[in-house]
Amino acid sequence: MSTKSSNSKARRKPKKFRPWLWLSKLATVLLVLGAVTLVYLDAQIRHRFEGHRWALPAKVYARPMELFVGQQLAPGQLDYELTQLGYRWVKRISAPGQVQKTPRGLTIYSRGFRFVDGHQDSRLAHVSLANNKVTTLKQASGQPMTLLRLEPQLVGGIYPAHNEDRDLIQLDDLPNGFIETLLAVEDRQYYNHFGVSPSGIARAMWANIKAGAVVQGGSTLTQQLVKNFYLTDRQTLWRKLLEAPMALLLNLHYNKDEVLEVYLNEVFVGQAGKRAIHGFGLASRFYFGQPVSELKLHQVALLVGLVKGPSYYNPQRHPQRATKRRNLVLSILAQQGLISASQKQQYQALPLSLSAAQQVSRYPAYMDIVRQQLQQHYPASALSNQGLRIFTSLDPWVQYQAKQAMQQQVKLLQQRHKGLNGLQGALVVSQRDSGELLALVGDRDGGYAGHNWALDKTRQVGSLLKPVVHLSALETGRYSLLSPIDDGPIEVPQADGSVWQPQNYDRKSHGVVPMYQALAQSYNQANVRLGLDVGVKQVVAQLRQLGLDQDIPPYPSMLLGAVEMSPLNVNQVYQTIAANGFYSPLTLVRQVTEANGKLLSHFAFAVHQAATNESVYLLQQEMRKVATEGTARGVYRYLPKHQQVAAKTGTTNDQRDSWFSGFSGQHVATVWLGREDAQPTPLTGASGALKVWGQLMKNIAYIAYDDLKPPSIDYYYLNLKTGQAMPSQCPNGVWLPIQKRLAPLTTTQCGY
Amino acid sequence: MRRLPCWAWLATASLLTACAAPSYGPIVQDLSVVARPSERLPSAASGSATTVTKQPSIVAQQQAVVEPQAVTITAQPQASPIQASAMQASSVQASTIRQPNQPSTSPISVKPISSDSAVAIAMLEKPKPLVDASAKLPASSRAVVEQLLAKADQLKAQGKVTEAIIQLQRAQRIAPRDPKVYARLAALKLSLGEASRAEQLALKGLTLVPNKKSYQYYFWRLIAASRSHLGDVSGEAKAIDEAAKYK
């Protein structure tokens, strides 16, 4: 206590003011502060620069297109694929990434690409086509080529939370004139200054005074990099003060080329939704759909011009501003003597040459499932920062047609049925034998604004389960497609004492019908009878073997589809039927590699038999009948008669859900339509989902349906009234495949 | 105790702050903000009460090939066997290959391939000029398949099994119903000791060749070899009987 008071007393003693002492103390503080700051800055700069590991999002690729002689393409497919890959149509082909129309087809100059199985060099190939079929494929030398694999389309990335995306490039990747243009516009003295440029600042000030506005900045590229790289976006004095010393330090530690390369990859050049476009590598792909090495000078000028204000000069949103800015850059080049006046005029007359491909996430639903799958194998951080390369089976053409079919048909349906609001849809397409997922549409316009109806949502599937009932029946060995089934009214006592009375869609009974007609016409009463005879438990077990991993309570109502499934799961079940009864899980990730190409994982194709070949063949033929004469016959309003498909319609109670699933020789597809709020619609499977399916199948190329009849089955020409085989000259008969051991009686009479 | 002047405090404080590790903020951020919550692919699910043992999931079939730095692949218990018998040409001598990826867990022992299987595999190694089963394929897609199969054979000969499988699957996408591709894939799986997969691939192959005797014989022999490998004696006998029908 006493000491304290004495202290305060001492303080109060008048003191002589000694300015030099105060100054020296202040100087010491500042010196220490300055030194500390420098040490700190230096550490930060070196740490960030030397470790300059950007978080590189995983890149997701579509399947590469493979061209070979005899391949059937859909009309417009090849042009579409090349456009999406950013190929340029030219009069005289000279470089990778170009394509030239020829009298009989196309000449394609492919880009090189590092595939999982090794690097493929850029190649020139002459492709001739007739009726969208590849007729010849030749090398530049004229020698025949067996297979041309185009580079795969990059369809997305898995971004870290801050949504930064970039394609790393090196100085060597830049086309001629790029560096010159960049330096001419942003930092003329780059190779001569120390990181900051007093003369540059002076010149900028002078230019600004002359113009009466800020027309030039005095920052060097080094300073810009410091700004982007180390400092926050906030415009503060503190930041301004740090910028110059940091730029000096950077310049001290690293050589000009190193700094420039980092700048090229760091610079912010645009925003795509939530995704920030960093670096000229990604910018080139984003705006032009081309690798930076393929850019022409007018494109280079645009990219360099964008640095000043990526959103103000956004060429997609403000093409006029962007053109003006680009032309200004070209003028600067001419002023500095880098190009001639006539070259300047030539380039200024060119259009912006932006990519024709859509840029905003084109495949949201598909990317969704890719992410879900990958997250089972890789931690999120590995996906968003290691630059992994993910090769998927996404087929851009099928995806495009799937989206078109959904959008257009939903629109038409809403026009036809006034008041049909909130209609949603989902579409899944897989390859018939491999089980690879080719396309996924998660909502009515393929734009994905919330729910992914193909994956996350389950709805009752209705008659789509009838094929499973039939397969179970065929597996007992007691049934043939000719077996008589009673379609009379039926009452099923329930466990709770109530009685279930399923009815046909048309509220009529159709008497005794052959089994195949019960499926073709989707008779409820007949199918319930068939299912009960086989046993509900048996049907449930069959459904699970076909690939549905869900708990299904074995209530009789499941025979009419009182089971909730997602469109993806429905497609899985139909996939197994289409693949001759062999289950393969639907897959989409083919391989994952590290950024350097090293293989990390790959998907190995495997199958497991879920039903005998004989039963599955018979079921497939029944489903063919559904399409030719049954409830799905409307598909032939879309398809040519010779295209064989097998399918089934599905409609649930009060028409809340409209389903269609089936397969061609090459594809398995499932469509669901229904209201978001699950209220009734005016749509049946045939008047709704069928249309989407039909339009899709019409527009994707197909290979012929390969009818592989097992040896235990024969075709018989049958009189349905008598159930006997008759001579083929008789009228009104039906050809049906029947197991030889259940062969019908054969007569020489027609029996009519 | 003498009090430190305020300037000294200031200097020390700033020194301390500066010496603390510079905070850069995490360069890598968590994906969860952007990505939707992870969900299992509903169709690819495991555990079922059915009698058939399905391949439980895509996960199981993703074979981790190499451990990436800083990336951990959740090793699946169902992943490919750790040790497998490999056939050297037609000899019965089985050697053990260790897949580069596999963590050193206890090896799963695999029954050596019987002499009968050896015959079948030898046959598969040098495919007989089988009657053309891919007659329906256009001539050139056959050429493509041949080229890819040759490449696969070459890779396999170099011991690059995964690479060989990748080529075979590439061929399968181009000609999804070409029985030759199934024959090669099945034979490769059997040589790796994945007899169950081999058997299933051969069964699927059978459905593609209803009228091709030589292929039917071939696939049934392959099935017999696989079953023998799996210890399924009656199944093997049945397959041998079936094969005999097509000899």
Q: Describe it for me?
A:
The complex is a heterodimer of chains A (752) and B (247). By secondary structure, chain A is of the alpha+beta class. Chain A folds into four domains: 62-151, Penicillin-binding protein 1b fold (2-Layer Sandwich), CATH 3.30.2060.10; 159-349, Penicillin binding protein transpeptidase fold; 401-699, DD-peptidase/beta-lactamase superfamily (Beta-lactamase, 3-Layer(aba) Sandwich), CATH 3.40.710; 713-742, no CATH class. Helices cover 37% and strands 19% of the residues of chain A. In chain A, a hairpin with a 5-residue loop joins strand 28 and strand 29. Chain A is elongated and about 125 Å long. Mean pLDDT of chain A is 89; it is low at 1-6. Chain B has 247 residues and is mostly helical. Chain B has a domain at 115-245: Serine Threonine Protein Phosphatase 5, Tetratricopeptide repeat. In chain B, 48% of the residues lie in helices and 5% in strands. Chain B is built from nine helices and three strands. Chain B has helices at 6-19, 58-61, 115-125, 139-157, 161-174, 179-191, 195-207, 213-230, 233-245; strands at 62-64, 83-87, 94-98. A two-stranded antiparallel sheet of chain B has the order 2-3. In chain B, a hairpin with a 6-residue loop joins strand 2 (83-87) and strand 3 (94-98). The longest helix of chain B is centred in the middle third of the chain and has 19 residues, at 139-157. Chain B is globular and about 35 Å long. The model of chain B is unreliable at 9-137 (pLDDT under 50). Chains A and B meet through helix 2, helix 13, helix 14, helix 19 and helix 20 of A and helix 1, helix 2, strand 1, helix 4 and helix 5 of B.
